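Illustration 12: RidA family protein.
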Amino acid sequence: MSIRKAVFPAGRRALYERNRYSPAIRSNGFLFVSGQVGSREDGSPEPDLDSQVRLAFENLNAILAAAGCSFKDVIDVTVFIVDPETRFDTIWKVLPEYWGEAPYPTLTGIGVTWLYGFQFEIKVIAKLPEAIAS
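Figure caption equivalent — predicted structure in token form:
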């Protein structure tokens, strides 16, 4: 049986406990990160789409750092976009700032109709560095 160890970024723990899920789980050398959105400290969406995507990546990077890794360790990405036909270009202009160098992680993009007031969500799986994989 694999052991699940929750990973929490600094602050914001109450949000996860209130909603009854972990921001990330470390298991068998991998880190499984829950979908991250561009939420402000109070949990509300950042209204500007460009800023919302950047904040989602900042929130994601805080979780990755809390687990001892970075976006360079990400192997699989899933993004959810409300109305991708009108928002895709704005979102994809921001990604290179966070994506890093090739080889890039795998990617699945999903168009959705609702994200609890958000327009973008990113979920990842990362391979933990060997020194912290257990």
